[in-house]
Predict the 3D structure of the following.
Amino acid sequence: MKSILSEASRVPFAAQVEEIVASTPIYDIHTHLYEPVFGELLLWGIDDLLIYHYLVAESFRLHDVSYDKFWSLSKTEQADLIWNTLFIEHSPISEACRGVLTTLHALGLDVKKRDLPALRQWFAGRTVEQHITQCMELAGVRNICMTNSPFDDLERPVWEKGFHRDERFTAALRIDPLILNWPETAPKLAQWGYSVEVNPGSKTYSEIRRFLADWSKRIDAKYLMVSLPPDFAFPANTVSANLIEHAVLPHCREHNLPFALMPGVKRAVNPQLKLAGDGVGLSDLNTLQNLCAQFPQNKFLATVLARENQHELCILARKFRNLHIFGCWWFTNIPSLIDEITRMRIELLGPSFTPQHSDARVLDQIVYKWQHSRRVISNILVEKYTELGQTGWQTSPAEVERDVKELFGGAFEKFCRG
Ligand code: FIX
Ligand code: ZN
């Protein structure tokens, strides 16, 4: 079938859209990266790229090293094993493997040599500062939002000591242990000077709010955040639901902070794989619907892990302006699903959402995660503007720029401010 627009009339505008999508700076709103002051918590370089938990999981399907043996290996030995298994003995065609190569290529390294020692040597000659600047430039990322946990014994002391903030990085207050494991978390808060009890009552809720206020202020949190198992329910007569209702949501209202929910993760489906052992399950999004409906004065950010939940999530966002959906999270961060999910969101929500976050755990990953996603988003936008053109509507480059800025962080920032 002949296309409605001839190639000649389509290409110049398509090229302009591509150029705008490729060059618009991004606010990466959820990562596991850290400002340089956190030292070793900020992972970067070839070995950390290779032992990313996505690759660890994939490698166990193709080598026969036991779990115990694998975890007893040094970082370099694990990286060697993964390199040999996933890149040398098989072709690196999975998304996570391709990502390593996209990143190395963008950094100017010759991947076809398959020379791991040479790659290590190149990284050894770099400083972290130099690397942050280059990776952010290559990824076109203007700001990186960290995931910050007061419950992390390595991270907490750095915040407590205080430091001069790096303006490229923003913070998000992660509170999984508080919501999902209160019996073990309560004694910690008590130890830190908050007068809380394992069976929460009004005094405990107000002390938790004091704790949340102290930490939101200390880290200048842009939002609070929790990941949830698929069967998480609200309302419910559970400690978790009560903590959300009586401590977290009032705190968020008082400080005008969104609460980010990430439902769908089944933690430790295979504990032997450690960080790589989490799985996915279908969530009951009535939970999110109930929260949005019952607390219109609260703002909710959400991303869901199951592909089968994505359509329902879009419809919820159409119903509730206090819900902002974001990212293709983790197992959905593969080109085929980014394409499907982003198309669906654009078709149902226009530009009022944030299509992607990197979830990078290793600094260098922002390069591939954003290059790959930009390409998919770009193709979808070209198609959508072309379809508009078929109605006689003309979209100017300035209008495309405006839309892409919204998608790449502008809409998120407005939602946070609102
Ligand atoms: O809970 C989360 O924030 C998840 O993104 C991580 O825990 C997960 O391990 C991950 O790295 C996914 O990309
Ligand atoms: Zn994450």
